[in-house]
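[Discussion] Sanity-checking designs against the backbone

I'm trying to build intuition for which residues belong where. Below is a structure token string of 353 positions. I'd appreciate it if someone posts a full sequence so I can compare it with mine line by line.
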């Protein structure tokens, strides 16, 4: 199905968009649990489900990308770098962002157990993906384009594998699909933190839960290069979200990050885009390109597989960096305009399913 707009419908929808509230805070019940979410853009636009990562990138932490997808220029670090190095390139990005105004409806949920959304009883990544499918229906998103950052990308892969009719295309950023995709230090720390006896103690003893948030999770995020690339506003949002996180959810989902997803990837049938910043520490950029070649497998060589799939418009791969400066795991915060432009390019030219 081609998701390009009908011109007559678009003119009416655009008028509605101009009077619509962007970034409206809303809530909905999903299987008896209350989800908080933010809604942006044109209510009749192409639906995009913007799924956040683990701890430091909640729905409001993804606000810059959501706003960029409404056509709003954010004057991000990446855009400032472009203006300094390639002024004409920066102007082109601004123009392209402006041109997508009114094109999209963006929903950014706070996943259960994160932010202000109620936790589910068994917060595994598989169960989270199943709940995300129900949430998408609850907010009337008909086969959205799913964008997932970091853990959100894992959920996007699982959603596409487990509920193939729930989305029309998948875009993932900074997403690890097996242990060797991650920085080895971070992977080992995540295994230690989620070792069953430690996990059980943190989940059941309030003092340990607060200690983990304040003395482990927050300092860990603050010391990360990607946190330093974010705006002060988004840094504050990231830290606030850590304080609101349900400990069981944090540890259960962390335990699943870095697990092998080959079985899930083999079941993905929708078009896929993989993108990331060139200076990512958690998932090195060379790994991101390798990950892109794992989708829609046709042979054993990931690079050749990616080349064929790009030609066939089944997989795309983008990286952000160079004259736009260093961008890592939080590229959606440091270069949201560029990410929005790439998403729009993929939607306009490649996502026909």
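Best answer:
Here's mine. Compare freely.
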């Amino acid at each position: 199905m081609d998701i390009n707009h009908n011109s007559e419908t678009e003119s009416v929808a655009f008028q509605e968009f101009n009077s619509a509230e962007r970034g409206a805070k809303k809530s909905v019940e999903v299987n008896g649990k209350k989800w908080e979410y933010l809604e942006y853009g044109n209510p009749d636009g192409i639906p995009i489900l913007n799924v956040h990562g683990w701890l430091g990138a909640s729905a409001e932490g993804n606000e810059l990308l959501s706003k960029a997808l409404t056509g709003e220029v954010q004057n991000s670090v990446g855009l400032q770098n472009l203006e300094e190095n390639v002024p004409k390139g920066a102007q082109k990005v601004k123009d392209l962002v402006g041109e997508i105004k009114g094109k999209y409806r963006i929903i950014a949920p706070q996943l259960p157990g994160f932010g202000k959304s109620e936790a589910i009883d068994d917060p595994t990544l598989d169960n989270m993906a199943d709940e995300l499918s129900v949430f998408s229906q609850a907010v009337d998103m008909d086969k959205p384009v799913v964008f997932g950052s970091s853990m959100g990308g894992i959920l996007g892969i699982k959603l596409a594998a487990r509920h193939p009719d729930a989305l029309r295309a998948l875009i993932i950023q900074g997403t690890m699909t097996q242990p060797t995709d991650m920085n080895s230090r971070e992977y080992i720390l995540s295994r230690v933190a989620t070792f069953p006896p430690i996990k059980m103690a943190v989940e059941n003893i309030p003092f340990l839960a607060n200690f983990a948030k304040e003395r482990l999770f927050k300092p860990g995020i603050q010391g990360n290069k990607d946190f330093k690339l974010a705006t002060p506003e988004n840094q504050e949002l990231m830290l606030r979200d850590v304080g609101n996180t349900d400990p069981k959810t944090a540890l259960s989902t962390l335990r699943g990050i870095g697990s092998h997803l080959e079985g899930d990837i083999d079941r993905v049938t929708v078009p896929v885009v993989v993108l990331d910043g060139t200076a990512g520490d958690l998932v090195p950029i060379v790994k991101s390109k390798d990950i892109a070649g794992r989708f829609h497998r046709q042979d054993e060589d990931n690079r050749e597989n990616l080349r064929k799939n790009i030609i066939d418009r089944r997989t795309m791969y983008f990286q952000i960096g160079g004259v736009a400066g260093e961008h890592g795991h939080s590229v959606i915060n440091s270069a949201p305009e560029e990410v929005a432009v790439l998403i729009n390019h993929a939607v306009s030219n490649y996502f026909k399913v």
